[in-house]
Design brief:
- This protein is an alpha+beta fold.
- It has 13 helices and 49 strands.
- The strands form twelve sheets. A nine-stranded mixed sheet has the order 3-42-43-45-44-46-47-48-49, with helices on both faces. A five-stranded mixed sheet has the order 13-14-15-16-17, with no helix packed on it. Strands 24, 25, 26, 27 and 28 form a five-stranded antiparallel sheet that branches.
- The longest helix has 23 residues.
- The chain is globular, with a radius of gyration of 30 Å.
């Protein structure tokens, strides 16, 4: 059992005798790994049932305004005493902004004509922290933090972005592909660099052909005109070189390229730009018919290309010296493994299936900037003084990630850290940066199997700052380098608190103790944390706490409605289901029936397993779920006697690298094995009849429903697949190619993982709910599978279409129709 504080006793209790081992509790001023291993309960009692008024399907699927309108996009004001957040208006999709002092329970709505005074979540600060700069509606503003005085720097229709204070006190910003700096004392604006996605002008060309050369010899007018042009060009170049009042910072990055990212050094002396070939994100045939258009016609909506149509693309890293007016392209050949054939084994297997022999050979791999799906930072980061720059790069084949710096003298990239994964490098947990007071990098890496913090001096060795079987994310470094704040699930995979580690010695200490899901933002003066916290039965609210160990938090917002609090909802229990395929258990939420008695006998319960979507998601945690409608639906089912299970099957977030990569080249195999373990657990522990179990889910959960019904046809008596993937070759590249490589390289993985290849296995009832304007999982996915089922002469399936819905349903009427069908399916089949 976990012992942490008196408040914890109301949250986590030992519910059954069997247990699993996880990393132990975190105590003050110690590293997580210094703590002894502690037993975590197999069942975690997360909350009590709530309310007295029965929930109905109509209410559960109603517009979520009725739950209360939670604070959104919260951030600190410059004074570190006030928070700013948005709140949705009742009955429409507009948001208002509010400010609230941290010592007050009252919020004030901000008038539209004052919105520019609020600052921004990504505001930047001067070196002495007395001035804040930010962008509002495309214009740059500067605020004096002590006086509150605001100066508008730009006032035009051009869109400015990326304000940053330079080491000389000037303020720089980006406009299009040009960078400017402003002297805040004089107001003088200077163009630092203007980047052109074209080839450099060739100047006045000399005659090249025989007849052109003869023309210049024979015709004096031609020769004179040519001389005059050369003289004019030479004079212009001389004027630019000798007259400092003229902006002369034009750089040409190549015709046919697009700018992936560019970052200006804090000293204003250099830029790093990354370009790649400009390609369309789609082909002309990538369209989606929209049958319910405002003009009553059929609109051909543009959609992204499929992974099967993707082609390798690589980038160029260009270092631009703004003082010397020189640009240099940095090659990737200094990166370890830049030319390895990392897919040799996969290619060999696929060749062999076709009776061919694969001969491996080295060749440069396509390499680009790291694309982390959760980042709010750039993949290019300068140190505080602007003397060093680091960038995170990834291979197009998804097997390698490099953290590299630039050796300016030799014009080459220097690999500081290589993370290789035989499956794929995670598209999360890639935070990195420089310590403020030394040329030392800090970064996240999954190399031990869990995301942890590391540091590396520029010319030194890597050292690990956090250790243990938990996941670290969301790094924030303090100005004095005394701490890196982070979010982690140290005590339990589903419980997230805020911690901080001292980079100098690796000592960690726990900051929050709120028991649930907690996110944070450090205040500008770095004395407080703005927390967004939720529990399983409670939507997120804002809290504030001191930025110190064992801090108590004060709740700022109280937005949950009385109507929601009054609803009778069954609180799920967090269960560790033993796995028959791995040493690690499968964590799951279990909604027990309202009349369930532990150890009951003589009843045969019916059950439903819900499959959450993917991307990279965890749902069996102790915070409020994004699946709040499903949460209420599951409570309704439980109130009617069903046992409902919601599993964090293998590939779910929060459980480490091995859990994540279990589905590599075999999507739909480990997950269905986990569902089978879930059914067995319910039979043994919740009196469930294995002949009365259904399953459902959306997106990846819909895919899993197909795979379960097609590959283990006796496991579930019915299933509902919502907005489902049926053929992974038709899904997008950035997600799918990580897990299954690319279809031209690894068709075996796509055929093994796509439900359409297993459709002949359908035996029991299937409901397919398909939105028609889904630009994520295309409606075509469902259409192709339906045709396959028709050709297989299957009778026990039905399809419901939703003409106006995207991937994430919006209209309450669509939600209600969808869940009425699911509810009816289970009533009829279980």
């Amino acid at each position: 059992m976990i012992f942490k504080s008196s408040t914890k006793k109301t949250l986590i209790a030992l519910a059954v005798a069997s247990s699993v081992m996880l990393s132990g509790c975190q105590s003050t001023a110690s590293t997580p790994t210094e703590q002894p291993q502690s037993t975590v309960a197999s069942v975690v009692v997360t909350a009590a049932d709530t309310g007295t008024t029965a929930i109905t399907l109509e209410q559960a699927m109603a517009h979520p305004d009725w739950l209360g309108r939670q604070a959104e996009r919260a951030f600190w004001a410059a004074d570190s005493k006030t928070v700013v957040y948005a709140q949705k208006q009742q009955g429409n999709e507009l948001r208002d902004l509010y400010t609230q002092a941290v010592n007050s329970q009252a919020a004030s709505q901000v008038a539209l004509n004052k919105l520019h005074t609020l600052g921004a979540a990504n505001a930047v600060y001067s070196a002495d922290r007395t001035v804040q700069a930010y962008v509002f509606e495309g214009n740059v503003f500067v605020k004096n933090i002590n006086t509150g005085a605001i100066t508008q720097i730009t006032h035009d229709s051009a869109k400015q972005s990326k304000p940053q204070f330079l080491t000389d006190g000037n303020l720089a910003y980006r406009q299009g592909n040009a960078f400017y700096k402003v002297n805040l004392a004089t107001g003088l604006q200077t163009e630092i660099a203007n980047l052109h996605l074209s080839d450099a002008p060739e100047g006045i060309a000399e005659p090249a052909t025989y007849i052109a050369k003869e023309q210049h010899k024979l015709i004096d007018y031609i020769a004179l005109t040519h001389k005059n042009k050369k003289d004019k060009q030479a004079r212009k170049e001389q004027l630019n070189a000798e007259n400092s009042s003229i902006a002369n910072a034009q750089f040409y990055l190549g015709k046919g390229n697009e700018l992936a990212d560019v970052q200006l050094s804090p000293n204003g002396k250099a830029l790093v730009a990354v370009v790649k070939e400009s390609r369309s994100w789609r082909e002309d045939s990538d369209i989606m018919p929209n049958y319910i258009a405002d003009d009553a016609g059929v609109k051909a909506e543009k959609v992204r290309r499929r992974v099967a149509d993707e082609k390798p693309i690589t980038s160029e890293v260009i270092y631009i010296d703004l003082v010397e007016q020189k640009q240099t392209t940095l090659a990737f050949d200094t990166l370890p493994g830049f030319d390895e054939d990392v897919l040799a084994a996969v290619k060999k297997e696929n060749f062999a299936r076709d009776g061919k022999t694969y001969e491996s050979q080295k060749q440069p791999r396509a390499i680009n900037l790291m694309m982390d799906w959760g980042w709010d930072q750039s993949a290019i980061v300068w140190n505080k003084t602007g003397t060093q720059v680091a960038m995170m790069l990834e291979a197009w084949d998804n097997k390698d990630r490099w953290l590299a710096t630039v050796d300016v003298e030799s014009s080459k990239l220097v690999s500081q850290h290589r993370l290789h994964d035989d499956a794929w490098v995670n598209y999360a947990y890639n935070d990195f940066g420089w310590l403020n007071n030394s040329d030392t990098l800090y970064f996240l890496s999954e190399e031990t199997g869990y995301s942890h913090i590391y540091k590396k001096p520029l010319n030194g060795k890597v050292s690990q700052l956090t250790k243990g079987q938990f996941v670290v994310s969301n790094l924030t470094l303090t100005n004095d380098d005394s701490a890196i704040y982070y979010k982690a699930n140290v005590e339990h995979p589903g419980l997230y608190e805020i911690y901080r580690v001292d980079p100098s010695n690796g000592n960690s200490e726990q900051v929050t103790n709120l028991d649930g899901m907690t996110d944070y933002k450090l205040s500008p003066d770095q004395t407080k944390l703005l927390l967004t916290h939720s529990k399983i039965m409670a939507p997120p609210e804002l809290y504030v706490a001191d930025a110190k160990a064992n801090s108590s938090a004060i709740q700022l917002t109280h937005t949950v409605s009385e109507a929601f609090l009054a609803k009778q909802l069954i609180a799920p229990k967090i269960v560790a289901v033993p796995s028959s395929h791995t040493d690690q258990p499968i964590y799951a939420k279990v909604y027990y029936p309202a009349d369930y008695v532990e150890g009951e006998s003589g009843k045969n319960r019916k059950a439903v397993i819900f499959n959450h979507g993917a991307g990279y998601l965890q749902n069996s945690h102790m915070g409020w779920s994004g699946y709040f409608r499903e949460f209420m639906f599951h409570s309704l089912l439980a109130s009617e006697g069903y046992v409902v299970m919601d599993m964090d099957y293998r590939a779910s977030k929060g459980y480490g690298r091995d859990w994540r990569t279990a589905i590599y080249r075999q999507m739909g195999t480990p997950e269905i094995q986990d569902l089978a373990d879930g059914v067995s657990w319910m039979a043994e522990n919740a009196n469930v009849d294995t002949g009365s179990v259904g399953t459902y889910g959306g997106s990846y959960g819909g895919f899993m429903t197909f795979m379960a019904l097609f590959t283990q046809p006796d496991l579930f008596q019915s299933g509902a697949a919502l907005r489902p993937v049926t053929d992974w070759a038709h899904y997008n590249g950035p997600y799918t190619s990580n897990i299954l490589n690319h279809p031209d390289v690894d068709p075996i993985a796509y055929e093994k993982s796509s439900p359409i290849y297993y459709a002949e296995g359908l035996k029991n009832r299937l409901l397919i709910n398909a939105p028609m304007v889904d630009n994520n999982v295309f409606f075509q996915d469902s259409v192709r599978l339906v045709q396959r089922l028709i050709e297989l002469e299957k009778e026990n399936f039905e399809t419901a279409i939703f003409p106006v819905e995207p991937h994430g349903f919006v209209q309450p009427s669509s939600w209600l129709d969808e869940y009425r069908r699911i509810y009816k399916l289970f009533k009829e089949t279980l």
